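Could someone model iron/sulfur cluster with this protein?
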Amino acid sequence: MSLACNSMKINEKTGGLSFLHQAPSQWREAPDTPIEYAPKEETIFLSGGLTLLQDKLIEAALNSLGIRFIALPNPDFKSFQTGKAFGNRGQCNPTYFTVGNLVKYLQDLRDNKGLSTEEIVRKYVYITAGGCGPCRFGMYITEYKKALRDAGFEGFRLTSFDHEKGIFQGEEIEEQLLDYTPKFFVTLIKAVIIGDIVNMLGYKMRPYEVEAGSTDAALAQCKEIVAQAFLNHSSLIKALWKCRSELGKVKLNRLHPKPKVMVMGEFWAAMTEGDGNYNLYRFLEAEGAECTPQPIINRLMLSIWEAEQALYKKEVLQVSNGRKIDFSSLKTRLLIKAGKAAVKTHFTLYAKAIGLHDYEIPDMEKLAHLAKDYYTLECSGGEGHLEVAHLIEAVRHNLAHLVISIKPFGCMPSSAVSDGIQSLVTARYPQVNFLSIETSGEGAANFYSRVQMALFKAKQAAKEEFETLEVPEYLPKRIHNYLCQPVNKKIGTSAKLVESIIKSPI
Ligand code: SF4
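Reply:
Sure, complex below.
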């Protein structure tokens, strides 16, 4: 509580409403005993929770700016149990996994690495994304604080940022610990974009590798090359060009028809690569599928789109109220445009350098148009209308043999809203193979069995698609090169490749 709140006295004359006359003050949750935190140069920042590759690239990128930053290990089942042990009831999975992951890491520092609790609290700070909801997302910071306090790390500092407020320092942080300069964000976004691109190539290649593990070995090399480029402040484009030769060494056989599975849904559940979604991607690949995940950049583009919409609404309101347009919004509009253009330019440059040719950053206007008859676009939270838009896009543009929408158990925007609407979408597009599935942290057997059932249908579809093609006698070697990424109406990679040869024989 704030000092003002703490010092409030019940006033009998006003029935205890004396606070009505007090000046408003920021609510603060200050530790009981004041803590002398480490100076800025000794502070160590922790974060994590994106894909494994992105976490590591972000670590290198921030280290290159002189920030002492450590990416936490991937949240696992033990993190989930730790989160449950110290968290409130009724939270969603991402909270348990991410909160538990931080507590588990700090416990390890204390119990196995010999650091005292005081030293941990004094030196470490956790960076996370925050917001005011409208779902449980708005309670993340409170959850972190409760779990940290109950686990014995009272006073541990958190800093969060949300897209509306920019960077917002945790309440107890009195001085600016991180310099949130444009350079900080640009560096961070570069790491996220490169991570997306390299991940997408990995998902395209791994199902077709001739030697098991060769794709992962090449990706590990790429991670090292890009991380070094960040640390040495050398050209990222040159580094990605160098990654081409690593990826080019992986021998592929791309003539096995495999079902293409688009995975989307709640951001964290769909993105994490571990126990948080029962290792969904590895499971699908082991079952013979090729996965197409949604890159993180899509969520970033949605946030930019939402900011644009909010600005537009504000301007319309000002005009209809007879007020002059506030020209500060013009500046914001220009900034949004510049941000969008910068993301697209960097994505295109990096994708070209490493050889991702067939992916374009989604057009958010187009997706909003697809979803608008089904989903109120003003309704934000989670992925908003994106899940509905992705399903419609997948079926209209032949993008997948199976669309999986994954979400944590009881996720408000994804289970309660999007899935309700998806039943109308699937009724209107009965040909779609769609599976909506929840993760609870437990119950993996049931989860896998439902995925297998939907995958069976997808495998049949992929096989039929391939068998309807007349495979030419001569097929050029290049079809086994990852750089060959034809774009046509077929869904499966093998079918796409054969179709491209039929259409333009050599
Ligand atoms: S989108 Fe769903 S899973 Fe994510 S914070 Fe909100 S309620 Fe939880």
